[in-house]
Structures are given as structure tokens and as C-alpha cells.
């Protein structure tokens, strides 16, 4: 049973769409992992007071819930990056986003975000295959 050109084209389009969606999902998962559990509505100690700017504590007087293992690793990785490395990651991201905007490919933006997150985490930066 041979497939027609139209069927092969449709199959190719579906494969490209699937790859693009997988990239987008990976980028969102990474963004959520890096975001941690920030909650802007959580009360904070007012500035100018001892401990000002920190999260308001629970009943035991602590400054809030202890971070989970993943949040602790992300926080440690975020602290290790130097200002120069962070600036380089910003330059890479601006260049990638400008390129993706020029080629008008939504999956490219997802991959660019993934590259930015990897750069900030100090991991090898994946290629931008567009």
C-alpha cells in the first residue's frame, strides 16, 4: 500500500507539529521548575523592620516554608551565576528572540526560552535548530 504525496505531506506536517509542541512543553516545564513556589500574595515583613522584605513566618516564627529539594537546587544554581555570565545569557536570549521573531516560528521561541534557562543554570546550551 503506497501513500500519496498529499498523505506524506500531511504526515510530515504532523511530525513537525509534534516536535514543536514537545519543545514548547519542555520549555514550560523548565520555566515552572525555575520559577519555584513564588507567591506574590504571601505576606512579607515590611521594609525598615528587622528581617524586612522576607516572607512573613508561620506560627513557629520561621520566615516561611522550607524550600523543597528542587527549589533549593534551583536557588543554589541561580546564586552561582556571575553577573558577566548572566549578561551573556541575556545577550544570547535577545539574539535568539530577534531571530525567532524574524522567522515567525512559535516553536523557535520555545526553544529560545529553553536555551536561556539552560544558560542561566550553567548547563550546555541546546542548539536552535530553525
Automatic annotation (TrEMBL):
Q: Where is this region: Disordered?
A: 37-77
Q: Where is the composition biased (Gly residues)?
A: 49-61
Highest taxon of the lineage: Bacteria
This protein is called Uncharacterized protein
Amino acid at each position: 500500500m503506497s501513500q500519496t504525496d498529499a498523505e506524506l505531506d500531511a504526515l510530515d506536517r504532523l511530525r513537525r507539529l509534534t516536535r514543536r509542541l514537545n519543545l514548547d512543553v519542555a520549555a514550560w516545564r523548565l520555566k515552572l521548575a525555575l520559577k519555584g513556589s513564588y507567591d506574590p500574595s504571601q505576606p512579607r515583613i515590611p521594609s525598615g523592620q528587622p528581617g524586612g522584605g522576607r516572607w512573613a513566618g508561620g506560627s513557629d516564627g520561621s520566615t516561611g516554608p522550607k524550600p523543597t529539594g528542587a527549589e533549593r537546587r534551583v536557588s543554589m544554581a541561580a546564586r552561582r551565576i556571575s553577573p558577566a555570565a548572566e549578561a551573556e545569557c541575556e545577550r544570547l536570549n535577545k539574539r535568539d528572540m530577534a531571530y525567532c521573531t524574524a522567522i515567525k516560528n512559535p516553536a523557535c521561541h520555545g526553544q529560545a526560552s529553553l536555551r536561556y534557562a539552560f544558560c542561566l543554570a550553567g548547563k550546555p546550551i541546546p542548539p536552535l535548530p530553525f
